[in-house]
Amino acid sequence: MKSVITVVCAFYKRFPIARGMTTYAVLWPSASICQQFIADNNKLDFIQAARYGFFGCFVMAPMIHAWLGLTNTMFPSVTLGTAIVKALVEQTTFGPAMMSSFFFGMSLLEGNSVGAAAAELRVKFFPTFKVGVFIWTTVNIVNYSLIPAQHRIIFIGACSFVWTVFLAYIKQLQVSKQQPTI
């Protein structure tokens, strides 16, 4: 058993993106199922959970891995001031890109048309973005100032679980002419 753990740890150390992808492949469908329990669904939608797993693993984890690598290169020091700058840069650039990718991509994975995906994005983006700015600015300041670089994607993954439960809730809201109240 020890040799298996050693091999897995060595693999994740050699390929850190795989660690993030594995984390998101578990966290995102788990968050979807958690949201379904909270919504008191009578029947769990495992296809929906699989979509979340696919999207988390193959879209979000690589995006986050690339972003964290870029920000570590752009802002190598680990100070509170740098953490605040990184968080603000992220909330004005990467955050909107991730949120747009989520609503648009998940809608396409559900089989919706490009027009329907764009309509959902228009309705749900800004209310969700407002909540995200508050939450993720705080999380990112902690992440960039206190968490060692090699553990940041896992820390963000854990915070992402709660955020993804929220996203899954917003995602399941029906698109109407009015924006959802958040």
UniProtKB/TrEMBL annotation:
Cytoplasm found in the keyword field: no
GO cellular component: membrane; mitochondrion
Sequence intervals crossing the membrane: 52-70, 97-119, 131-147, 153-170
Pfam families per record: Mpv17_PMP22
Major location (coarse): membrane
Membrane topology type: Multi-pass membrane protein
Keywords annotated in UniProt: Membrane, Transmembrane, Transmembrane helix
Localization terms from the record: Membrane
Family recorded in the similarity comment: Belongs to the peroxisomal membrane protein PXMP2/4 family.
PANTHER family: IP10007P-RELATED (PTHR11266:SF75), PEROXISOMAL MEMBRANE PROTEIN 2, PXMP2 MPV17 (PTHR11266)
The protein's name: Uncharacterized protein
